[in-house]
Each structure stands twice: as C-alpha cells, then as structure tokens.
Amino acid sequence: MSIPETCDVAVVGGGPAGLATATRLKQLGVKDVVILERESQAGGIPRHCGHPPFGMREFKRFYSGPVYAARLVERAEKAGVKIVLNTSVVQLHEQGRLTISTDNGVCDIQAKIVVLATGVRETPRSTRLISGQRPMGVLTTGALQSMVYLKQKIPFKRPVIVGSELVSFSTLLTCRHAGIKPVAMIEANRRVTAPSYTQFAPTLFGVPLYLETRLVGIVGQERVSAARVAAITGGETDIECDGILFTGQFTPEAALVRMSVLELDQASGGPRVNQFGQCSDPHYFATGNLLRPVETAGWSWAEGVQCADMLAGALTQPISNDEKPIQVRITHPLIKYSMPQVITKAGWTKGMKNFQLRFGGQAKGVLSLSIKHKTVWTRKIDALPERRVLIPIPDLDSFSETETIEINFEEK
C-alpha cells in the first residue's frame, strides 16, 4: 500500500491498541487514518501466542493469539483503515511530522494527530547483568514464541524459565505446544508475581517451581549447559539445561520518544501524558502498553478505543498545552509510578477515569489522594508487586490554582 504524504491520524504500531484506536476513529467518521507497522503483518504480540484466551472483551469469545490478531486486522480493514506494513518510523518531529523508512527509502508524512502505540518489550539478559559467556539458547518469551509459532523452529529442549509473571506461564503453553520440557521455573521473590492461582500451573506441567531463587550466571560455551542459581538461604547450584528463557520485566518500547522532543517519564518508562493520553507536544497521543508496562491485550485494546474517543475532539477543538498542567507527585518510594503524570484542567469532557499505579513491593496500608494538602480520596490496600492499582481522577473544577496532586501511601 502506498504511503500518503498527509493524513488526519497516523497510528504508529499495529498491535491491539493501535488497531483499536484506528478502527474506532474510522467509526467516529475520521476520514484518513493510517497505521504504520514495521512488521510484515499487523496484530502485535498476540500473533506469536498460539494459545487462548484472547478476545473476550472484543469479540465475546475466546481465540488463540493469531486468530485474535487476524480478527482485529480484518475489523480495521473493513472499517477503512489503511495499514502500511514493513514501515518503520525513525523520527518524531514537532507538530506531527514523521520520518519513516521503507524498502523504497526514507520519506516524511505529515499527520494532524499522531498516536504512538508501540507497546512493550521484555528485559533481555544484557540489561539484567547476568554473568557468563554468550552461548546459544538464551531467549526472551517474545523470541521463543516468534520462533515456535511463526518460524516453526525449536531453539532448545530443556530450558530454565526465569520469572513468574503472567507471560512466564504463557511460555509453559508455548513449550508444551513445541514439545519443549522446561527443567525448572525460578523466581527471586517469595511468591509468584502473577496471581496466586498460577503457582499450581508449573506442577500441572511437571515443571519444578523454585521461589526465592535467582539466576546468577549462565554456564556454557557454544550452547547453554547449565543455569547457575542462588537461593536466599545461601550457596550456588547449577541446574543442567540447554537454554535460558527470560520472561517478563517489561518496559515500554519508547526508543522513538527518547530520541524526540517529547517528554519521557523516567518512572513508567513511557511518554509523559495528561488524562487524555496527550504528550508534551499536543499533536502526539500515546495508548496501550507504551503508557506503562504491562497490561493484557484486551486491556490495551480497550485503552485504544478510549484513546480514539478522547482524541477525536482534538481534530476540531485542539487542547493547547500553553496552560500550565497540574503535576501529579508520588510521595512514597514503594509506588513505582503513576499514569497519567499531569492533569490538564481545561479541555474535553472525556478523559481517563483513573490514575494507574503500581508498587515495587508488597504494600499494606492506606493509599490516599490529596489536592493542595487536602485529602479527597482514601482506601485501605494490600497490594502486591506489579499489580494494577486504580485511583479515581477527581473533578478539578472546584479547585482553583492547583499546582500539584499528591498520591500518598502510609504503611500499616
């Protein structure tokens, strides 16, 4: 498909959030909506996940990942969305101008509004600072699923799975599909990161689960031969294996934001946005897992729909960021981040209903929200690491000259 020189909305990324945004915009009557997707197929991460459950929010039934992704693409194309494949956005410029790279070279496209929906990526070995050589057989979940479901290749037979997030248990299904038999799943914390019911899944798959155990080294020259692990009780042990599968520890795929004029939120790893998903340049919006790591495909899809509803007004009634936004401040170190990071007092009526935040460890106590040192919301919580916590965004009309909103936590 040819690339237009101009469009109303350019969506960067063709995963669930990007497809949902584009489809909804067409349903709202926006004329020119283009998705720019760097892969040869749109659909995002679900294309690599050959197992259910996907699609309950969107289609009211369960699909495998590839079928779900294909349904989203089909729905977008029927709505009139232009999906341009094998196209990488290499630079974000002011006021919605994009530099893109294709097989035919480099060119620019000017959009009235740009929606960034580039998703997340897992933390690889290099960033985790794991010692050892660089043998074959060290992968992330995404790489494994791409090899198994898209390329029909088996990278190892007896890996050690590192991590216990939801995606870690997804790898058990991928391994079973491919005839791979993991020898262990290890987790550095004293409980699994995913919901507690998942702790029984490794046993059902015949995989030992070792808690309070961390990977400290990889043994092997040409091919992985063992995982060197350390338990909290002390001492190191080698678990014989032929592969290491790093799972989870997601971070937003925000390389484009880092290299642009847009403000980056260091805490969440994504762009700094207001309650409309609008970035520091008002021509840019962000949605889906780029906002923070990590939510399900269904949650990201719902955020894409919401993003379209919010930004549709920007095509006729732009919000200028000339007015000083209200800053959202976190007062306790256990809170990793909050999104949105700023609130725009004057603007459209539709916006995010909640602050989304996460804790870096188990947190039991009282969570509260205050405006100008006055508490306007409070709740007792018993939160676990990496679990979504929501705080209602208050009506700010009754507060004048508000400079900050504080999110507080008092441990009990």
Q: Could you explain the architecture of this structure?
A:
This protein has 412 residues and is an alpha/beta fold. It has 3 domains: 1-122 and 249-322, FAD/NAD(P)-binding domain (3-Layer(bba) Sandwich), CATH 3.50.50; 124-248, FAD/NAD(P)-binding domain (3-Layer(bba) Sandwich), CATH 3.50.50.60; 323-412, Immunoglobulin-like (Sandwich), CATH 2.60.40. 20% of the residues lie in helices and 33% in strands. It contains 9 helices and 26 strands. It has helices at 16-27, 56-59, 65-79, 125-128, 141-150, 166-178, 201-204, 255-258, 297-311, and strands spanning 6-12, 33-36, 82-84, 88-92, 97-102, 105-116, 120-122, 131-132, 138-140, 159-162, 184-186, 209-210, 213-220, 224-231, 236-240, 243-246, 250-252, 284-286, 326-330, 335-339, 342-343, 354-359, 363-371, 374-383, 389-392, 404-411. Strands 1, 2, 3, 4, 5, 6 and 18 form a 7-stranded mixed sheet that branches. A 5-stranded parallel sheet has the order 9-16-10-11-12. Helix 7 (201-204) links the parallel strand 11 and strand 12.
Helical percent range?
10-25%
Count of DSSP-assigned helices: 9
Determine the strand fraction and express it as a percent band.
Answer: 25-35%
Which spans of ≥5 residues are poorly predicted at pLDDT below 50?
none
Number of domains: 3
- Please provide the count of β strands: 26
Determine the structural class based on helices, strands and strand pairing: alpha/beta
Q: What would the average pLDDT be, to the nearest integer?
A: 92
Distance between the termini: 58 Å
CATH architecture of the largest domain: 3-Layer(bba) Sandwich
Report the biggest beta sheet as strand number plus sense, adding barrel if it closes. Answer: 7 strands, mixed
CATH H level, superfamily name of the largest domain = FAD/NAD(P)-binding domain
| Estimated radius of gyration | 22 Å
Please give the CATH class of the largest domain.
Alpha Beta
Could you please say which CATH topology of the largest domain applies here?
A: FAD/NAD(P)-binding domain
